[in-house]
């Protein structure tokens, strides 16, 4: 297969996903939930929308036009996939296959159903891709590795695969910047970035930078339309647990009945908790963000006003060139000797 053939296969996959019937979506959601109770129908549908957007024909052409992809003999690229949100490993699979390499893939036990479905569908579209996809529990005899996991598992990956080229990602999360003049409608869009996937993804906002003196009640009131998250059993268990800890420790916090806001400098926060950090000037804000850059996956702000940020509501629909940890996966793959 040449690059045009591979692009065509993924473009057709995007069209197929965009045309799924209500019954098909429900069937996929039920299968996904059987492995991971966090995967609601809405989460599965959002992830399928995201995959469809990634492989849109215009997006693919714009993305890949920046590279000269060689027609070399394929290399075996190991992929370890996370399972925190549906289809989170798809972008790595896409990068490996679109560059003509062989994806030796260890699927997450929590997202096995959906990823297996995507793999079957793309092979149905062009069965030549079947020879480029190997599902394996062990990543032996690979030429390179792309791995995603916790900070602890990253240390294991870095040691075990130290002899092969690798991209190993660690814990990251995302942040929002509020200037203090946002409308309720803009805060509602921010809520998409906070509550989609119950805050479990690295592109979920887990921390908000606020100007000193900001009215927290305005923020909490504007997020009220997301109160349905408290009806999810696993989410409410996290909320109750974190609230009890705050109360026992007599730690200052804000609470609107479904999310807890705590002043904390850490970027990563527990489920049902948002961290807050105040700034007194743009220079102060720049310093605080720069100090935590290695832990921030992406930044969001109203209409993308803050430098290198994206608009509220867009964090969960990245473009193909929005690489995790800002590591260019395509550049990595085409540079392997």
CATH topology of the largest domain: Aldehyde Dehydrogenase, Chain A, domain 1
Structural class: alpha/beta
CATH homologous superfamily heading of the largest domain:
Aldehyde Dehydrogenase, Chain A, domain 1
CATH classification, class level of the largest domain: Alpha Beta
Strand order of the largest sheet: 8-9-10-7-6-11-12
Question: What is the count of structural domains?
Answer: 2
Order of helices and strands: HHHHEHEHEEHEEHEHHEEEHEEH
DSSP strand tally: 12
Beta-strand percentage?
A: 15-25%
CATH architecture of the largest domain: 3-Layer(aba) Sandwich
Helix content: 40-55%
Word description of this protein:
It is a single chain. This protein has 337 residues and is α/β, with parallel strands linked by helices. It has two domains: 3-170, 3-Layer(aba) Sandwich (Aldehyde Dehydrogenase, Chain A, domain 1); 173-311, Aldehyde Dehydrogenase, Chain A, domain 2 (3-Layer(aba) Sandwich), CATH 3.40.309.10. Helices cover 40% and strands 16% of the residues. The protein has helices spanning 3-18, 22-35, 41-54, 57-64, 90-98, 112-125, 151-160, 184-195, 216-222, 233-248, 282-291, 329-334; strands at residues 76-80, 102-106, 133-135, 144-148, 166-169, 173-177, 205-211, 254-255, 260-263, 273-279, 296-301, 310-311. The strands form two sheets. A seven-stranded mixed β-sheet has the order 8-9-10-7-6-11-12, with helices on both faces. A five-stranded parallel β-sheet has the order 3-2-1-4-5, with helices on both faces. Helix 8 (184-195) links the parallel strand 6 and strand 7. Helix 1 (3-18) runs antiparallel to helix 3, helix 1 packs across helix 6 and helix 2 packs across helix 6 (112-125). The longest helix has 16 residues, at 3-18.
């Amino acid at each position: 297969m040449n690059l045009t053939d591979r692009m065509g296969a993924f473009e057709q996959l995007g069209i197929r996903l965009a045309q799924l019937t209500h019954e098909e979506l429900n069937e996929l959601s039920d299968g996904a939930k059987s492995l991971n109770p966090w995967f609601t129908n809405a989460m599965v549908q959002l992830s399928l929308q995201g995959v469809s957007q990634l492989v849109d024909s215009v997006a693919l052409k714009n993305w890949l036009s920046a590279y000269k992809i060689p027609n070399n003999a394929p290399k075996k690229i190991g992929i370890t996939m996370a399972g925190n949100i549906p289809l989170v490993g798809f972008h790595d699979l896409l990068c490996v296959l679109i560059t003509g390499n062989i994806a030796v893939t260890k699927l997450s036990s929590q997202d096995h159903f959906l990823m297996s479905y995507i793999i079957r569908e793309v092979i149905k579209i062009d069965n030549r891709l079947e020879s480029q996809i190997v599902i394996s529990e062990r990543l032996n005899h690979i030429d390179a590795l792309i791995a995603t996991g916790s900070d602890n598992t990253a240390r294991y990956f870095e040691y075990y695969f130290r002899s092969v080229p690798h991209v190993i990602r660690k814990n990251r999360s995302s942040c929002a910047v509020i200037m203090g003049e946002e409308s309720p409608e803009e805060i509602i869009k921010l809520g998409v970035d906070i509550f989609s996937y119950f805050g479990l993804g690295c592109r979920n906002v887990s921390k908000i930078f606020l100007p000193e003196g900001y009215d927290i009640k305005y923020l909490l009131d504007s997020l009220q339309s997301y109160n349905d998250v408290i009806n999810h059993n696993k989410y409410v268990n996290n909320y109750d647990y974190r609230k009890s800890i705050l109360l026992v420790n007599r730690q200052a916090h804000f609470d609107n009945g479904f999310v807890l806001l705590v002043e904390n400098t850490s970027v990563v926060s527990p489920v049902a908790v948002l961290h807050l950090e105040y700034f007194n000037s743009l220079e102060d804000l720049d310093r605080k963000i720069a100090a935590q850059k290695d832990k921030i996956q992406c930044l969001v702000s109203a209409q993308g006003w803050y430098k290198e940020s994206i608009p509220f509501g867009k964090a969960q629909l990245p473009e193909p060139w929005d690489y995790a940890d800002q590591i260019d996966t395509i550049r990595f793959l085409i540079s392997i000797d």
